[in-house]
Structure formats: structure tokens, C-alpha cells
Amino acid sequence: MANSDSTRFLSGVIEGFYGQPWNPSERIELFDRMATWGLNTYLYAPKDDMKHRAIWREAYSADELAHLEVLIQGCQTRGIHFIYALSPGLDIRYSDASELERLQARFEQMLAAGCDDFALLFDDIPDRMNAADRDAFGSFASAQCHIANALFRWTRERSPRARFLFCPTPYCGRMAERRLGGENYLETIGRELLSEIDVFWTGPEIISRDITVPHVQELQRLLRRKPLLWDNLHANDYDGRRFYCGPYAGRPPELRDAVSGILINPNCEFSLNFVPFRTFAEFIRCDGTWNARAAYLSAMEEWLPHFETIGQPVTLADLVLLGDCYYLPYEEGREAEAFFERARHLLATDPKQWSDDAAAFRLQSSRLRELCVRMTELKNRPLFYALSRRIWELREELDLLERYVTTKGDGKLPDAPCRSDFHLPATYRGGMVPRLQRLLLQHPDGTFTLEKAVEPRMDTDGHR
Q1: Is 286 within the bounds of a domain?
Q2: How far apart are CA 352 and CA 354, in angstroms?
Q3: Does 160 share its domain with 244?
Q4: Do 220 and 141 fall within a single domain?
Q5: Annotated catalytic residue: which of 48, 116, 117, 124?
Q6: Structural domain contains residue 123
Q7: Are 392 and 245 contained in the same domain?
Q8: Residue pLDDT tens, the chain, 464 long
Q9: Active site residue 350
Q10: Last residue of a domain, one of 303, 325, 345
């Protein structure tokens, strides 16, 4: 890999999720970890920094800028690239020269604060152009290239070694296949965007299970450069009920030679990212094959001291079992998957044939359920707060399954309906979102059908 700062392989973390941004102490802790583990880049792009995206034309106040200066200096003293990202795509007028001046003013403010590297993001924006922009450029891609090229040249005049990144409107394979951003968008980017500008890509999907070398090589042909991976494998801003503490997986080590860098955009909750960060750092510097499970178990052992309690200690085996329940978007960890299969097999079998299987299930379920309760005793309260609502939901489901198995397995009334005084309609799995989710059934191929006939609700007088 080249040594020049402008071509250096980027490896690190994007704070680029939707949700509450990390606080200053969390960011400094991140920089310390990155420096220790050999990661070299932090991209500042929290969607809910209003001046990053929603009101991007407004300059930072003196207090806001002072905070950013601390982050920039924190990165620089640790040998980490600080890259500031601006996301103007929601309402930018590409053909209005004053808009470029506003972008320059924003970058000028960051240059004065000590920032040298920048990113311009056009992701998650309306897929339409106003008439003036269409007349001036003809396409989204050409309009965005015009702005990015002009801003890049302006930046390089002031910071000659600046790294400059660009996020396209279609930033994954599925979006490109559906022609988001217009016909031949990526080909136009490859042809018109200056070759020194890196282009972000998330893989076949926004959250990609696998990213292969052939996939990236085909993209190289379109972009006429190596892409820069914006990896959402551990992102959870699209589903607040889940988090992902599994390993960096589904990417072969050979992928590193086919891209200009890999940056991971992780869980919104900083304290839940120890294993994603640790295993990703190991992946970046590993030789030969990559054993994601082994890296996960090693990182879990390092994470274990964070789980000190005021009562019964959490063991490594406990932590692995819990982590396996919140592994990766497309898979559970081995122990969680085995537990799920045991539960599914048990419930699909006649209770008369359960024998010792029911007792074994209850034993394992009780262990996991009590582990969820034990998390309330964590001394690390920010970690507990990040876990609490999610693991309490797991505890409730385990409690219901145990009650069901006990009711059906006692042999007294095997055909009687199972009821629980702790899981009542509306208060359990209640609310508008769960009700809407029950209207359609999603199949493994991604299609949806009606789950069942939905009867009209009656009012208290019995009217439809």
C-alpha cells in the first residue's frame, strides 16, 4: 500500500448512523482504541448533527467548532485521519453558483479548525432534480460530479495532500440495478468524477452479508478506480430492537487489495461496539485466512471485564451465549442458533414425546433468561442502559416459552390453551408497530403475503 497520505489505505470507523451522536468522551475512547489496534481513520458524519445534513448551509457556532477542534486534535495526536463529511443532497441547487460558495465556506471553517480531509455525501436523498439543474447538467451524476470536482480543486489549493471522499446516490448493487439516480449513473461518475476522489460503496446491499472480490472488481470497471467500502454490517439504526456484537465476517482478506479502504459504520450505541471494532482491526492486519468465529471468541474474552457485576459474576460462557443472540444481521451465533433449533423442534413435537427434551430446554432457557436479569447488576451503567430494553424483550419471550412448555408438558390438560398472567394482549407485543407487522407475512425470498384474513374490528356496541 502506498505511503502518501492522499493514497493511504483507509481503515477505521464512520460515525454515520441515524440517531443520537456519540458524546465527546466516547469519541476519545474510540480514538484510543483505534490507535492501539492499528486503525487510521475516523469519518465524522453523524446524520443527526443538524449542520452535517439538515441545515448544512449554517456555520458552526464558536462552541460547536471548539468541540470539533478537540476531536480533530484528538485524532491527529494519535496518528488518525479526521475526515469531515458534509451531506447537502437533500436540497442543494446544483446549478446555483452560490451553493458552491456555501460549501466552500463550510469547508473553510473546518480547514481553520485543523481539518485537512473531507467527504461529500449524496446518499439517502430524493431521486429527482429540479428543472434548472436538469437543464444545466442533464443528470444527477453530472451535477454531483460538477460540485464535487469544483470543491475538490478548491480544497486541494488550500490543503495539497487532502483526501477527498464521495458517496454516490446509488451506493449499493441493488440501488444501481434499480437505476436509482438515473440511467448510467455509475458510469457517469467513473467518467466525470476526478480520479483522485474516492467513491464509497456498501456492497451488494445497504447491509451486505457478503462482499466478494469479483463484486468489487466489476465495480472498479464502472468507477475506474478502487471503491472505498462504507461497511454497514454492524449498523443497527434501521432496527432499534437489535444490536450486533458478532465479528467482522463475510469479507475475505483478499478484499483489502481490491479497495482503497474499509470504514465500518457500527451500532448507534457506542458501548456495544467493542467486538465489531476489535475483530475488524484484526481483519485489517491478518495474514492468510480469516477465522471470524475465533476472532469473536478472543474479542469476547477481552470485552468480559466490562461486565463486572455487583452480584454473581458473568462468565465468558455466559457472555458468548448472550452475544450469540445478537450476532449479525443475517445469522445468530452458534449457541443461539442451536438453542433456537432445540426450541423449534420441541414445539413441533407432540408433548407426549417430549420426555427429557422439555427439561433440557427449560434448563437452557432459564440460564439465558436469568443472565438477562443479571445484566441489571452491571457496574458499567452505560453498557447496561444500551442493553436493557433489548435483553428484557428476550427475557419476556423466554419466559413465555418456558410457561408454554411447562403447561403442555405437565400432562394434565394437553389440549387446553396456554395463558400467562404476565403476557396479556396489548401490553405484550402491543402497540401500533407490532399490529402493523402482523398484517403481512414476509417469506424467505423477500416477498410478502397476507398472513391471515383480517376481520374488521367491532366497536363496543358490536358494530363493524
Answers
A1: yes
A2: 6
A3: yes
A4: yes
A5: 124
A6: yes
A7: no
A8: 333 455 689 999 999 999 999 999 999 999 999 999 999 999 999 998 999 999 999 999 999 999 999 999 999 999 999 999 999 999 999 999 999 999 999 999 999 999 999 999 999 999 889 999 999 999 999 999 999 999 999 999 999 999 999 999 999 999 999 999 999 999 999 999 999 999 999 999 999 999 999 999 999 999 999 999 999 999 999 999 999 999 999 999 999 999 999 999 999 999 999 999 999 999 999 999 999 999 999 999 999 999 999 999 999 999 999 999 999 999 999 999 999 999 999 999 998 889 889 999 999 999 999 999 999 999 999 999 999 999 999 999 999 999 999 888 876 666 778 888 889 888 898 899 988 988 999 998 889 999 765 444 544 444 44
A9: no
A10: 303
Q: Which residue has the cell 453530472?
A: 142
Structural domain boundaries, residue 366:
316-409
Rg (CA), the chain: 25
Secondary element (H or E) of residue 291: none
In 3D, which of 132, 57, 66, 43 has the Cα closest to residue 88? 57
Longest dimension (CA), the chain: 83
Within 10 angstroms of residue 137's Cβ, the number of other Cβ atoms is 19
> Chain centroid to CA 413: how far?
47
Of 259, 278, 303, the residue that ends a domain is: 303
